[in-house]
Amino acid sequence: MNFSKFLKHLNHHIVTKQSVTRQIIRFNNRKEFQSCLRQIKKLKPSLSKLSHIQPIGIIHAISCPLQSSKNLINHPAIRFIEKDTKIKMHAPTNFNPLYSSIETELKPSIPWGVQEIKAPQVWKYTKGDGIKISVIDTGVDFNHPDLKDQLRRGFNFIYPHMPPWDDNGHGTHIAGTIAASNEQKGIVGTAPKAQLHPIKAFDHKGTAYSSDIIQAIEWSIRNQMNIINMSFGMSYRSQSLLDAIKQANELGIITVASSGNDGKKETVDYPARFTPTISVGATSTKKRLASFSNKGKNIDIYAPGEKIFSTWPNRKYVELNGTSMATSHVSGIIALMLSINPNLSPVKIKTILKKTGTPISSSNKKITPKEINAVRAVKAVKKIKTT
């Protein structure tokens, strides 16, 4: 199929300013997508703006900087075009480290959230050994003593020729709650033997495009991850993002997503709102639903998200609030479950978590929210394995 007229038109409308809106252009099938890529490569020397096109193989699409899709000519190979939306992390960005370094008088500890969900009580059975978790976030501090033993290869979609170093802090904090492992001088996370694969899709301001997230999911599929932690969200529904998550789900990869910090009672952000994901809300230190957490029937499970103490770049630690923090607890518990039975499907994992959670008091009489419970969840998995 000939794409030359379309690509010349596209080249004319591509805008290279940093603040410009991006669009995702979806093709009908893999064959037409690859045909277009071949012609892009052929035409690049004469149409220089085509170098700003980003291929997204998992959904047979390209993303490029366009103010609008209205000016694009129709082409029979194009399925549809949608906005390549920006996504934000689910956590505050203005805070100060509580401890300046590992040398500070920090006693070895298990953070309250990890204790609340009863993770230490199942470590005699499992610590998440061998389970691969991709953390799609701002990267991670590879030198942090509490994380270095559990960190594995990841990828940087912001600066592809560099390791996924954390220039924000959020990703390092999430990683610590999932799998920190420093019993001597630091903290211990939920699944301290799980393998962390940091994927930097968010910039230093905590912002990413949907296309970056989709490519991170594709990386996770290609590298056979067991769990994808997604502590971020948006109000816009992206069909392209849903299609990528569905593919991961069909291959048995569990996707865990934070519900959002807007305090809404009946709605949650995407991708947590998508059915294939496990959507997570936050509880407070008083074992109630956190005031900032989105709530309602679309939440699958809750976990501690208030005053969560975890790792921070430059050998530091901070205490943060957010459904992001709650999500990392859930990813850790799922790692504990999968290390006992790696054949559990995403649907089965979600069912077990919802059935075994601890009921939380709520003003909504129609819904009984539940906080994740490691002991009951692992016991259910052990029972399945022995039957």
Largest sheet: 7 strands, parallel
pLDDT under 50 segments (min length 5)? Answer: 93-105
Strand segment tally: 18
- What is the spatial order of strands in the main beta sheet? 7-8-6-10-12-13-14
Helix and strand run: HEHEEEEHEEHEEHEEHEEEEEHHEEH
Instruction: Tell me the distance between the termini.
Output: 55 Å
Average pLDDT, rounded to a whole number, is 91
Shape, per Cα inertia axes: globular
The portion of residues assigned to helices is 25-40%
The oligomerization state is single chain
Q: Assess the beta-strand content as a share of residues.
A: 15-25%
Instruction: Kindly provide the radius of gyration, computed on alpha-carbon positions and rounded to a whole number of angstroms.
Output: 21 Å
Structural class: alpha/beta
Number of helices: 9
Detailed description of the structure:
With 387 residues, the chain is an alpha/beta fold. It is 27% helix and 20% strand. It has helices at 4-13, 30-43, 112-116, 170-179, 210-222, 239-250, 323-340, 346-356, 374-386; strands spanning 22-27, 54-56, 61-65, 78-84, 86-89, 132-137, 155-156, 195-200, 207-209, 227-230, 232-233, 254-258, 278-283, 301-304, 308-312, 316-320, 358-359, 370-371. The strands form five sheets. It has a seven-stranded parallel beta sheet, sandwiched between helices. β2 and β3 form a beta hairpin. α4 packs parallel to α7 (323-340) and α5 packs parallel to α6. The relative contact order is 0.14.
